[in-house]
User: Which sequence fits this backbone?
């Protein structure tokens, strides 16, 4: 299986006054297409920073990142917000801890929201099918205020998948949900990974959820420990 | 200064627009209301036309009750009659209503101050152009109408200018026999005024 | 899903805030449209009044402004007059196309109102006056022909007040002179509506003013230099020259300082409304900081987010300004009544004229100003990075 992501010696330094704080300290990893990988580690270990760089939300301070064989970040090369957006909209879908649905748009409109800005050429997403797969078919005309937390996160997942991304990044997607809803989201992620062959990178504090992934990587002090 | 004088000149040398367009308004309502109803504390102004209250059928009924047709360029169903409802505290104590009546030498403005039951409190010709205007506008003449109401006028023939013998109206004599036409016009105006007020207010109240 | 639909639905999130902002814009647009409409209407009405006088220069006896007041108050006693013989001299000037003599007289009528009132008559020359007032149309009848006929032409409102039809008689009070009505004019919306015209020789005779005039209307040739001509007229003894252009410019200049003030008020109203717009949009941008970041993560370019927020501003301003213009249109007559009460002199006719061009212009101006105000909030929104919103979330 081909690697979809190849990271080499990724570093990220934050500056606080004259002090340099390494958030990532030489992370190298390969992720295969269709793989489901989870990142765990204590708070401040650099999981979210890593996910942001792998997901092209942020530039690394140094190191390289290849996306499907194509070099994205290399030494000394910083990408502008526009360049990052161009890559992101082609490759990634994102799910965050908070759902950020537009309260005045219906479930269907929220799911279709990304199309207002970008639609992959030749894309024929079966939105009805996507909604059905996520158990939202009957909720399509509802407003977010009429949904449960789990349902809202499922809408967020549908929204992240509507442009048929190759990689889905999920940063603490169940952080705001109880255990029952967490299980729901776990099932959804697994199913999407299996059915749609979407590569999933998951950051979570929840060990059960982390174990759902095919591979779990642990970070400590900005380094991969296993 | 020369310029300013010029402006004032132009504003004054030309005749100003003549009052209200069609209706028959009091020249100075605040002062006139206080004079006709000294006990009043306020008044409300309504503009009512035959057209807005009943159109053609109402016009026919008014003409039939008047015993004469509406005539000329200006006696039409769209004339907005100005009715002042007089108020004392919260109580309605009467009305003031005027109609334009064609006289021999000009328009006669026939105003009636009415009690709330429709009886005449005072007849007042706001404007009357006639060689004998002074006699017709004399207080003694106008006072004779005090206490009369529409019933007293119902049998009055406005075309022939005749009131049935023995009726209260028959006792009112023309103070200026030479101005018989204006006298009759004035009485026609009073009768028309009472009929309109009956149609607009009293009939409905009954 | 179009960006404009999202922008519209975003505005529905905080309905009260949106409605209040729209109302603010509506009020300022109302003020602006009414003022612009007044500006246009007043000038139009003034032009109409002045053009409908039929002549460009009015010559009166010196000191006439005060005498005109006398005329109104005392019925002509103590009035000063021009000699009728001057007409010939003025008519010979090379700049003059026509001269029409006029004699204004008023008389006390004890039977008008409670304590009497004035009745005015304008004596005009049947040979020249109808030409200089060619636009006057008759409802019934026509001009008197004979310069000393005992006949009258009545403006519509004067005829209505007197209930006169053609063939009816008029009585000049005190003088006991009967006049036959031969014509009733159609409404013009000018002072003519309230005027009773008589042949000027009849007025001279009835009022004992033989050989005298109160003024003459002068129609100037098209190519004439009115300023030079009026200067020449001042060489005549004891005359007051009133040029209509001068009257207009004086009234307009008197009005202009008032206009500067009201336009300043309108400008302040617009500025306040625009500050309101900036505040509303900026608040909504800050409230949606994370959401805007998420939109970026979904693939929205900075330009998309800019467009989204700018579209919200545009909707607010379009709705507000349209509502304001509708208010201005609906309340134009009320505004006019108010203006008439406030102004010492207001010409006849519509003082506040709001046509479609003015309406569209107001909407465009207010929306344009709104879009400029919306630049900063839209720019702030466009700069939001997805990372910022995620960091916010982590915090």
Assistant:
């Amino acid at each position: 299986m081909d690697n979809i992501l190849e990271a080499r010696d990724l570093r990220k330094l934050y500056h606080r006054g004259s002090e340099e704080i390494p958030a990532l300290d030489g992370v190298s990893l390969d992720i295969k297409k269709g793989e489901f990988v989870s990142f765990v580690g204590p708070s401040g270990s650099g999981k979210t920073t890593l996910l942001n760089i792998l997901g092209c939300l942020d530039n690394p301070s140094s190191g390289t990142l290849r996306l499907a064989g194509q070099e994205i970040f290399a030494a000394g090369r910083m990408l502008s917000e526009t360049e990052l957006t161009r890559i992101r909209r082609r490759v990634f879908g994102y799910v965050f801890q908070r759902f950020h649905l537009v309260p005045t748009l219906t479930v269907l409109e929220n799911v279709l929201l990304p199309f207002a800005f970008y639609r992959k050429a030749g894309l024929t997403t079966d939105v009805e099918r996507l909604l059905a797969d996520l158990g939202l078919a009957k909720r399509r005309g509802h407003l977010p205020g009429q949904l449960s937390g789990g349902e809202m996160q499922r809408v967020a997942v549908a929204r992240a998948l509507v442009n048929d991304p190759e990689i889905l990044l999920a940063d603490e997607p169940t952080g705001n949900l109880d255990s029952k809803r967490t299980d729901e989201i776990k099932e959804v992620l697994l199913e999407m990974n299996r059915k749609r062959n979407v590569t999933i990178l998951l950051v979570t504090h929840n060990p059960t959820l982390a174990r759902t992934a095919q591979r779990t990587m642990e970070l400590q002090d900005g380094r991969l420990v296993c | 200064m020369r310029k300013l004088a010029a402006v004032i000149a132009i504003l004054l040398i030309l005749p100003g627009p003549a009052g209200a367009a069609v209706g028959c308004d009091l020249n100075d309502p605040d002062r006139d209301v206080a004079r006709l109803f000294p006990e009043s504390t306020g008044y409300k102004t309504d503009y009512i036309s035959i057209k807005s209250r009943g159109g053609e059928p109402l016009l026919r009924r008014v003409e039939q009750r008047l015993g004469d047709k509406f005539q000329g360029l200006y006696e039409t169903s769209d004339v907005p009659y100005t009715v002042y409802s007089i108020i004392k505290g919260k109580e309605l104590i009467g009305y003031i209503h005027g109609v334009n009546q064609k006289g021999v030498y000009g328009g006669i403005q026939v105003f009636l101050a009415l009690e709330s039951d429709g009886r005449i409190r005072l007849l007042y010709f706001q404007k009357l152009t006639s060689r004998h205007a002074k006699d017709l506008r004399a207080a003694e003449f106008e006072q004779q109408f005090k206490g009369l109401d529409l019933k007293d006028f119902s049998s009055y023939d406005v075309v022939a200018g005749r009131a049935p013998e023995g009726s209260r109206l028959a006792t009112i004599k023309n103070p200026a026999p030479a101005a018989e036409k204006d006298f009759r016009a004035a009485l026609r105006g009073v009768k028309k005024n009472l009929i309109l007020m009956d149609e607009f207010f009293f009939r409905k109240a009954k | 899903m179009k960006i404009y639909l999202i922008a519209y639905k975003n505005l529905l999130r905080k309905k009260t805030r949106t409605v209040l902002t729209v109302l603010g814009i509506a009020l300022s647009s109302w003020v602006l449209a009414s003022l612009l409409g007044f500006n246009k209407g007043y000038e139009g009405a003034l032009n109409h009044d002045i053009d409908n006088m039929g002549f460009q220069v009015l010559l009166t006896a010196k000191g006439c402004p005060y005498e005109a007041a006398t005329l109104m108050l005392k019925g002509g006693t103590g009035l000063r007059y021009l000699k009728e013989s001057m007409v010939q001299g003025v008519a010979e000037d090379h700049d003059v196309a026509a001269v029409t003599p006029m004699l204004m007289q008023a008389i006390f009528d004890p039977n008008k109102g409670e304590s009497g009132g004035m009745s005015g008559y304008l004596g005009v020359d049947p040979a020249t006056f109808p030409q200089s007032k060619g636009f006057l149309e008759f409802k019934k009848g026509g001009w008197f022909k004979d310069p000393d006929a005992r006949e009258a032409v009545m403006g519509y409102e004067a005829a209505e007040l007197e209930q006169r039809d053609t063939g009816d008689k008029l009585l000049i009070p005190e003088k006991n002179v009967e006049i036959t009505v031969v014509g009733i004019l159609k409404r013009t919306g000018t002072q003519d509506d309230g005027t009773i015209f008589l042949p000027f020789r009849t007025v001279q005779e009835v009022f004992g003013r033989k050989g005298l005039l109160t003024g003459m209307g002068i129609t100037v040739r098209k190519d004439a230099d009115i300023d030079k001509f009026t200067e020449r007229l001042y060489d005549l003894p004891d005359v007051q020259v009133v040029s209509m252009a001068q009257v207009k410019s004086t009234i307009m200049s008197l009005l202009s300082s008032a206009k500067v003030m009201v336009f300043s008020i309108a400008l302040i109203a617009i500025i306040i409304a625009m500050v309101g717009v900036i505040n509303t949009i900026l608040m909504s941008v800050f409230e949606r900081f994370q959401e805007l970041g998420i939109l970026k993560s979904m693939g929205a370019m900075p330009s998309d987010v800019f467009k989204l927020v700018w579209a919200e501003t545009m909707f607010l301003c379009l709705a507000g300004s349209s509502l304001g213009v509708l208010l201005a249109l609906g309340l134009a007559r009320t505004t006019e009544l108010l203006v008439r009460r406030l102004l010492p002199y207001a010409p006849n006719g519509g003082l506040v004229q709001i046509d479609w061009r003015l309406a569209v212009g107001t909407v465009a101006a207010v929306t344009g100003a709104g879009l400029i105000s919306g630049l900063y909030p839209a720019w702030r929104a466009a700069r939001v990075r997805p990372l910022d919103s995620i960091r916010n979330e982590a915090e």
